[in-house]
Here is the input.
Amino acid sequence: MKLFLKYNGSYGDYGFEVLDETAYTKYTVSVRTEKNKQQIIIKNLNKQIIAEIFNKNIVFRYFSVKCMGRFYILFPVLKEYFAFMIYGSTYKFAGDISQGNFSLIDVDKSPVMTQKKCWGQCGDGFELNIYNEEQEIFSICCAICAAMYMTKSDTKTQMVGDV
Here is the structure.
């Protein structure tokens, strides 16, 4: 399944929308900022909350993800490339999040999702290829966390405001 993540400031302080291949909005993402934290809410077209992400910047910046009845924590690590570690899942990141091009893979090396920068008729954003449809919402949450983190690490690709 192919989806597109695009910045759209009409959904709160900062926000995104998730589009399908036909440029039809599938999900809206609103971001509310206060002091050292952000609340990111993903809603379907019926305005039902399907996931929440809390972005906190205490000692270091990390994300708490609540989706599909589970909790995950994504926090940054620095190795050869910039990536996140995920508590609460067997998935790992491959690639460099700071460049917007990465994959989410399972421990058996099967791909769950890939993301790359793209420019198209819907504007600049990210193309998401989701291979495991059961993990669609979690994959979108990971892509949003990466986009939010990229704004802090690279002002040239800034899509949303700083915390």
Observations:
- The longest strand covers residues 25-34.
- The domain at 2-157 is CATH 2.40.160.200 (Porin).
